[in-house]
Amino acid sequence: KEKEKEKEKMCSGGTLSILRSDSYADLSQYRDQHFRGTRYEQERLLRKSCTLYVGNLSFYTTEEQIHELFGKSGDVKKIIMGLDKVKKTACGFCFVEYYARGDAENAMRYINGTRLDDRIIRTDWDAGFKEGRQYGRGRSGGQVRDEYRQDYDAGRGGYGKTVQCQ
Amino acid sequence: ETGQPHKRRRTSEPSEIEERLESLICRVGEKSTSSLESNLEGLAGVLEADLPNYKSKILRILCTVARLLPEKLTIYTTLVGLLNARNYNFGGEFVEAMIRQLKECLKVNMYNEAEYLVRFLSDLVNCHVIAAPSMVAMFENFVSVTQEEDVPQVRCDWYVFAFLSSLPWVGKELYEKKDAEIDRLLSHTESYLKRRQKIHIPMLQVWTADKPHPQEEASRLYLLYTYLDCLWAQIQKLKKDRWQERHILRPYLAFDSILCEALQHNLPPFTPPPHTEGSVYPMPRVIFRMFDYTDDPEGPVMPGSHSVERFVIEENLHCIIKSHWKERKTCAAQLLSYPGNNKIPLNYHIVEVIFAELFQLPSPPHIEVMYTALLIELCKLQPGSLPQVNKGHLLEVIMCWVFFVCFFGWLFFVFFSSFDRSDCLTQDLEKPKSKFVREVLEKCMRLSYHQRIIDIVPASFSVLSPANPVCIYKYGDESNRSLPGYTVALCLTIAIKNKASNDEIFNILKDVPNPNQDDDDDEGFTFNPLKIEVFVQTLLHLAAKSFSHSFSALAKFHEVFKALAESDEGKLHVLRVVYEVWKNHPQMIAVLVDKMIRTQIVDCAAVANWIFSSELAHDFTRFYVWEILHSTIRKMNKHVLKIHRELEETKARLARQHKRRDSDDDDDDDDRSSDREDGPLEEQIERLQEKVESAQSEQKNLFLVIFQVIMGDVFAASFVSWSCSCSEDMGRGLSFYLQHHQIIQQYMVTLENLLFTAELDHHILAVFQQFCALQA
């Protein structure tokens, strides 16, 4: 045990900043505008969070697929599927919570930016799930990005909502 | 100038300068508009100018890069050489600092870092910083470790390795100056290698040599715990080639005229620190090869497996991964910009090194998913140019996907390499190849969905497609109404749909007769398999929609589960019913078992018993079963470690509290007040101690269950207790052993003959014993 402590001292006393780089696991620029609390509190929570937001999912991607993929970086505690507020069906995002932060970090490093259901998915730190956050915030009930989208995306309900209404 | 502004300037500058110095030093050697030589010369000039004010910082940075950036070894030895030529004293101080650092590393069991330091020191001979005879003297002390008595073999191994592995860099120079001494060292080494114990598991020689190869290792995939022998063969060949080594980049050659004018330093006599109880040496390494000179006939030839170039390239590529594992894009870029691209088949080396890490024992140095992400980044940077292992398959697609979906990556590689598509159809479905394909397809299905797999698998392969993962509810059909418990099942279904409470459920279940006994004892819940059957079948069926639905069901009716599964038989039966319902959906079984362990509906031993039960015998070699077993073991191990840590932390808190009290000047001899302070913590420690003991006994019990099946009762008991005495972290040791056993068991050629035979177990046990003995 003594040796472990000395070893840690040696390692921390002599590292190089180029080797400390961990850009995939760093906080992104995004901050949830609906967060209740100070910026400081939000960032504190983000830095110790075990929960990831996962975006750009297909509407048809299941919890099982997500569990299999995200299980590669560690034991998944819980998955909460994002739902359309009106239809209560999947609307292309979810939250993945791990038991250990290290496992979430590995997901950010190695699963973020890879494919699921042939779509490049995106993960980001989340301050923690709260009831109500499983719903899309777009006016039509889905995610905001699907309100104004101009392109056709078969996995996400086709055209964006505003386009559909035209 | 007085006061604040002046002060501020002084405190902010030094750290900025240190950062700048570190950045300058770390970045030398990267892509630049100027040549490496002129960059080195420029940097040497800057550092020389900064020496008067920042000498200790520069020393620290240089020592750190020597330890942490071994892939740039010769760049930094050249830099030190230039500095030494300009400032002899600095050179001396650097050497002293390096020796101090080396001693520290050895003391705290940082053997990988120590190896890089030794290599750095030896390359400093090439830069005229260190005198060759003193380096030879250090190596003499290293090799004489082999004469020590009563030390672990792995200790001797490491010192021999440290000597041999430096020779590609400095062999030529040392032999020119001290050939007799080097010859003597080599001869001592040879006799050590002859007498040291070798372990190997002559694994699966699956990769059949379908091409004629003169080399004995050609196209063979096997594990050797004789990495030293491989290096020895490489050094012997190097010597035969008169120490000509052409791969290593040596910037110091360009500065020869400057460097040979420099005065050299003598290494102080270095005695390897003695072996202590706490010394932990590196595990023997595995040499893994998958390519040879016949691969990629169009491109540059792959250095032979006994060439020293192969060793150097592999070392450097491993170091690059070690430096940049957190940054997958950077890692891929750094790997692909390894120098010598047009002379060596770099892409093949990269792929081989990645697989070598994945196959490392007991486990890869980094999480498996890192390697898949890295392969994907490599493919992005070099689309279409990664090597094809087997004609007809796009390696970049299949490899990434196979690893991404599979649990035991290396086994898949093993089978993949001999994979001839039509083979698995004509043969028995139980044959390894067919099983392999089925398991791969099942894993692929987990990441997509059943219909997709059916759609993409060619018709001729459809027999290997996975089952549709639907739940099987025995009370579902009207035609089953004669089954015992059918009406209760219907009742339960309605009740649960109407949001019944646990009490209401208990009430309904009261009416279920117990096929095991004559009089129904409904006071307690003695084991009633029919009750369990009806309840679990119905609930799981109702909650079948998704994982979340099933988890909610487990949570809502936790009380009922706990009561029904109170006894060991109850736990076992719950697991059996889960299997019956979900046997088409192994992923669901795995997550349910995980949840039930975590919510203490079943315990780890029950899961082990269930896995080894006769009902599961035909599924025994399926991956999901072992996935569950390993996950269970992991949870058990994590649990034990967690409680251990809690106990240590609480003890530390108590110690700090005592220390604080002792250091107080307060002479108040009130024993009672200090007892009162200690009270709660001491109670906590006692409780945690009990928790640790009970967790450890549960862990031991789990392994006993497993090994009883594998090797019989009597043997198991003594094996487990012997393992406990061998290694502190029994959990890890036994997990490792189990992985081996499972792998050998699953994929030996004639499964039936070797399954559970005493011979197999003794063989495996012997191997494991040897392995432990290395560390003893």
From TrEMBL, chain A:
Residues 50-128 form the RRM domain. SUPFAM superfamilies: RNA-binding domain, RBD. GO terms for cellular component: nuclear cap binding complex; nucleus. Its main location: nucleus. It is found in: Nucleus. GO terms for biological process: mRNA cis splicing, via spliceosome; mRNA transport; nuclear-transcribed mRNA catabolic process, nonsense-mediated decay; regulatory ncRNA-mediated gene silencing. Pfam families: RRM_1. GO terms for molecular function: RNA cap binding. InterPro entries: NCBP2, NCBP2_RRM, Nucleotide-bd_a/b_plait_sf, RBD_domain_sf, RRM_dom. Signal peptide: none annotated. CDD domains: RRM_NCBP2 (cd12240). The keyword Nucleus applies. Component of the cap-binding complex (CBC), which binds co-transcriptionally to the 5' cap of pre-mRNAs and is involved in various processes such as pre-mRNA splicing, translation regulation, nonsense-mediated mRNA decay, RNA-mediated gene silencing (RNAi) by microRNAs (miRNAs) and mRNA export. The CBC complex is involved in mRNA export from the nucleus, leading to the recruitment of the mRNA export machinery to the 5' end of mRNA and to mRNA export in a 5' to 3' direction through the nuclear pore. Component of the nuclear cap-binding complex (CBC), a heterodimer composed of ncbp1/cbp80 and ncbp2/cbp20 that interacts with m7GpppG-capped RNA. This is Nuclear cap-binding protein subunit 2. It comes from Casuarius casuarius (Southern cassowary).
Automatic annotation (TrEMBL), chain B:
Keywords: Coiled coil, Cytoplasm, Membrane, mRNA capping, mRNA processing, mRNA splicing, mRNA transport, Nonsense-mediated mRNA decay, Nucleus, RNA-mediated gene silencing, Translation regulation, Transmembrane, Transmembrane helix, Transport. GO terms for biological process: 7-methylguanosine mRNA capping; mRNA export from nucleus; nuclear-transcribed mRNA catabolic process, nonsense-mediated decay; regulation of mRNA processing; regulation of translation; regulatory ncRNA-mediated gene silencing; RNA splicing. InterPro entries: ARM-type_fold, CBP80, MIF4G-like_typ-2, MIF4G-like_typ-3. Residues 654-682 are annotated as: Disordered. The chain crosses the membrane at residues 394-416. One of its GO terms (cellular component) is nuclear cap binding complex. Residues 673-682 have a biased composition (Basic and acidic residues). One of its GO terms (molecular function) is mRNA binding. It comes from the Eukaryota. It is found in: Cytoplasm; Nucleus. It holds the Pfam family MIF4G. Residues 18-239 form the MIF4G domain. Its main location: cytoplasm. PANTHER family: CAP BINDING PROTEIN, NUCLEAR CAP-BINDING PROTEIN SUBUNIT 1. Belongs to the NCBP1 family. This is NCBP1 protein.
